[in-house]
Amino acid sequence: MVFRAVDENLGRDVAIKLFSSGSQDDVVRFRTEVGVLAGLRHHGVVSILDAGVDDSSPEDPRPFLVIELVEGDTLRAALGTRALTTRQIGELVFEVAETLEYIHARGVIHRDVTPSNIMIVDYRTRFSRPRARLTDFGLAIHGSIPRDPEGTTNGTAAYLSPEQVRNEPLTPASDIYSLGLVLLECFSGTIAFPGNPVESALGRLDHDPELTDAVPERWRPLIRQMTAARAADRPSAADVTIAARGALRADREDDAE
């Protein structure tokens, strides 16, 4: 659960993420998120301000995180209410890829890049534009951790990489695959692998995601590369930022003609 609160010492609004004390999974997620976020300093990552355990009820102590309050819509909410322009989509994927480049360079794999974990923040200044920020590092791992325990798969089924479905050792390429599915969904308006969690997860083992006519020709090669079945065939986050910047520049030049 996440609550809006006020830091009385600093006089500013914050968000408090409260974990259930009864779930071992929540305790693991709490420790993971604290450890990962404490070492990250990037404008695309929501900052951690404090962490601890609420023991006001001794029989029910609950871990909590105090994090920067990010006001805006999730990408999931935005996709449900309006169609994004090609430029907005391109800027979004550029910013998320830039954030992934930063965390990957520090040995962190997010493992749950989804529209629900991307916030679109509008700072509402005259010349600013909405910015994308990556949230929820509860499933993140350092690259030295090989994989989940036998028989478990962490992440959101519709956005898992093939290697996540197979419970194979992960690399940063797993996040790139997930971002590729997010990019495809932004253009097409539909989830690439629909169905119940099992159907959705297994679908990507049978076939590549379909690129509908709604996907602009200029962006199709990048999406195909990002969603390649083999992790080794996918671009790095840095490569995605370069490709997205180039596509955005070409789009602007077309608009100017």
Structure, explained:
The chain is α+β, with helices and mostly antiparallel strands and 257 residues long. It folds into two domains: 2-68, Phosphorylase Kinase, domain 1 (2-Layer Sandwich); 72-256, Orthogonal Bundle (Transferase(Phosphotransferase), domain 1), CATH 1.10.510. The protein has eight helices and nine strands. It has helices spanning 24-38, 75-81, 86-105, 162-165, 173-188, 197-206, 220-226, 237-256; strands spanning 2-7, 12-18, 48-54, 62-68, 72-74, 108-109, 118-121, 131-134, 141-142. It has a four-stranded antiparallel β-sheet with strand order 1-2-4-3, covered by helices on one side. Strand 3 (48-54) and strand 4 (62-68) form a beta hairpin. Helix 3 (86-105) runs antiparallel to helix 8. The longest helix is centred in the middle third of the chain and has 20 residues, at 86-105. The chain is globular. The termini are far apart.
